Amino acid sequence: MKLTVPTMLTLLRIVLIPVLVLVFYLEFRGAHIAAAAIFALASITDWLDGWIARRYNQYSAFGEFLDPVADKLMVATALMLTVQAHPTVWMTLWAAVIIGREIAVSALREWMAELGQRAKVKVASIGKIKTIVQMVALVCLLYQQDFLGLPVFVIGEWLLAAAALLTLWSGFAYLHAAWPSLKEDAKN
Predict the structure, then answer these.
(1) The predicted structure's pLDDT at residue 178
(2) Which CATH superfamily groups domain 5-180?
(3) What residue intervals traverse the membrane (predicted)?
């Protein structure tokens, strides 16, 4: 298996997960700023690996498999850190919605692949918007401090709520796209 640049960037995201956790819990001035920077770097590599793959035609089956796995692991880790640091009902609810949807959509994609209909549940534009809002929210929540008088954490909370709602919307969009195939399979 040849490792492409996009796949190496995806692997970097996975390697950054324990680094994110370690930095988040280290007790030094600026630890949360460093954790937010690590997550921001991981988010940028998510965009960059896709851009490079499309621009330079560097696709691989392994990369296509690993990219969403790396994204979900990084997001779930950041959500767990955030909920642990701020265990409120709303924070936990939004995190549960986001993680639950990711599991459900992954299962749906797997099932659709078994039916030979995986293309019906490909990433839609609402999913891309959800990802952007979610990444910005998590950077704000990991940062945890005000910046230039802006309540960054509160902004992150509101963005996370928006991301959870977009998550539900995109999850229903995937289900709606897959429904005819699922209904047909149920008849057989």
Answers:
(1) 77
(2) CDP-alcohol phosphotransferase transmembrane (TM) domain (1.20.120.1760)
(3) 6-26, 33-53, 73-100, 121-144, 150-175
